[in-house]
Hints:
Layout: H1 3-10, H2 24-32, H3 44-55, E1 72-76, H4 86-90, E2 96-97, E3 105-106, E4 126-130, H5 146-195, H6 200-240, H7 247-274, H8 282-308, H9 313-336, H10 354-375, H11 381-403
Antiparallel strand pairs: 1-4, 2-3
Amino acid sequence: MSLIQRIDALLPQTQCGKCGHPGCKPYAEGIADGEPINKCPPGGDETIAALAELLKIPVLELDISRGSAPPQVAFIREAECIGCTKCIQACPIDAIVGAAKLMHTVIIDECTGCDLCVAPCPVDCIEMHPLPLGTLPVVGGLAANLEEQQARAAKRDHARQRFERRNARLQREEQLKQTEREARAQRAAQVEVAATTLDPVQAALERVRAQKAATADAALKKAKIDVAMSRAQLNKSLKAFGHPPTFDQQSQLIVLQQQFEAAEQALAKLESSAAPAPVVAAPAKDADLKRAKIQLAMRRAELKKAQTAEAPPAEIAAREQALRDAEQALHNAEAASVQPAPELVRVEKRPIDDRLRQLKTELAYARADLNKLQRRDGTPADILEKARARLQEAERQVQAHVIH
């Protein structure tokens, strides 16, 4: 083995780039050329000591300016994943599986904790978790014995092999793409030569048509991504907000809903212009109906807020008029929609019991806090017992208030 290969064999093979190089092999080449051996946070003191022994140089302290890299693995919150494949493209060892527009997940046994997949995620659904107990880390900490050192070395070799196989696959794919590009260029040249025998106006039209087709494909792809992004943001907000949402939250939901509908309409417009099938006007009408319902909910919330704050009569009258206008707009949207008209039944609602609302709010918070503590590893037993007691007391108060 060459010196570079022996140095590379001691590096953690996370390919994280924290050393300032695009991978472990380039850093090994830099060390062979005289670079310091303390620029690898994932390797830590163990890697520095091994490199110092190999090169017969003094041991250095880890360069803390490079950050820290404790043993960890990536975790994808799969319910929020939009299937954009950006994390798959960023993973240096193919430890993430999935497909376009489908959920992605991380193979924990293969992940080296490089965290290169976190930044590219457009919906921020990837987080780094501490390495599960019982899982052998690639690097980190001094090995307790020779057997553990050998196991870590085997895992480093495995990660290196996955990285090299991935690079070889990407190189083959790039060569294939280059071949296809050259073939397309050759066909375009043939078309250009053939176009010289055509009428100049017809040849120019053919070139413009080809250019428009390429532009339309790119615009259609971008529109689909925009729809997926806006849908994910809307769904995430709906899950995060309470029920019913507050006035400010309703305003945010309206903006997100409008952005989602605008993205859908833009995509539908591009798809209709690309496909010869007739365009049905129902989605637009349904979107108008949905927007009218949201506007009506907003006007009701504004009127209730003004009444609660004892606003001036003129302001309350204006809110009431806005509510009537929103109701009329909803009726118009229902009449224009292709959906069947709802069967409306007037129900006399009881006055809202503020005390019951407070008790139910406390019950919801107590239940959420207990679930959070139960999911967290290492929560002390006394804290869990207090949380359970709080939940039981909240349930008792709600039941007592309902009975009386």
